[in-house]
Amino acid sequence: MSDITENIKILKNQLPPSVRLVAVSKTRPERDILEAYNAGQRIFGENRVQEILRKKDQLPGDIEWHLIGHLQTNKVKAIVPFVSMIHSVDSFRLLSSIDSESSKSGKVTDCLLQVHIADEETKSGFLPEELLEELDSHDLQELNNVRICGLMGMATFTDDSDKVRNEFRSLAGFFNKLRTEYFHDRPYFTEISMGMSGDYEIAVEEGSTMIRVGSLIFGERIKK
Ligand SMILES: *Cc1c(COP(=O)(O)O)cnc(C)c1O
After folding, report:
1. I need a surface site. Which of 63, 66, 154, 156 has the fewest CB within 10 A?
2. What angle is formed at CA 140 by the lines to CA 108 and CA 109, rounded to 5 degrees?
3. Model confidence pLDDT, tens digit, residues 121-130
């Protein structure tokens, strides 16, 4: 058995059935993705629009492409027809652009709101207080072509597992607050996308419903 097939098997065996695996295939060649596909994997995560557009034509049509990286408004139109979920919605401007392009494509796009839970300035996402203000000041009922399915977050890159756990716990707590206070009439508000190769076990313990794992499946990425 190849490493990729083996790695997926090991990972899936560890996950509770309630947690979905997003195989992060950014920078990986099509043959690696196909191998994961043949091992039963269907959800793949990419962080660049161009990379999804290039790869999708070479690969089976039933792959679900998830965008996990920052999305620029000017790329929304290109990706909307092909994406199953956008994990990285970090502004209302972006959300409303996804809504209007989805409407033009005759589809409803599943989205997650990215929340900034880490220390690092470089990671994007709404600050929790900022997101609450945005939710108070916008009418979500007007957005008929996006479904806000939950939240996404990335923990600080550190060996301090208590810190990572606290960050994931705060995201799960925030998710529960939003579900009760803003999304109680949206039965699809169910997802917490958190956990990567280095911290997915903690994320699962803290209530993740979707982990995004790359290097543990495909090997270390070649740094560019
Ligand atoms: C690259 C990336 C991952 C996967 O990282 P690994 O450490 O390779 O598992 C997960 N989420 C996001 C947003 C990423 O950019």
Report:
1. 156
2. 15
3. 777 899 999 9
Max Cα separation, the chain?
53
CA of 131 to the centre of ligand 1 (A): 23
Determine the pLDDT at residue 11: 96
Contacts of 111 (CB under 8 A, 6+ apart): 85, 86, 87, 89, 95, 98, 146, 147, 148, 149
Residue of 41, 68, 168 to mutate, ligand 1, most atoms within 8 A of C-beta: 68
Q: CB neighbours of 5 closer than 8 A, spacing ≥ 6?
A: 35, 36, 38, 39
Residue 7 CA to ligand 1 center (angstroms) comes to: 16
Helices (H), 68-151: 76-79, 92-104, 128-137
41: CB partners within 8 A, 6+ apart:
8, 21, 23
Residue 214 alpha carbon to ligand 1 centre in Å? 6
Res 2: pLDDT:
75
Cα(41)–Cα(6) distance, rounded to whole angstroms? 12
Report the predicted TM-score, pTM, of the whole model to 2 decimal places. 0.96
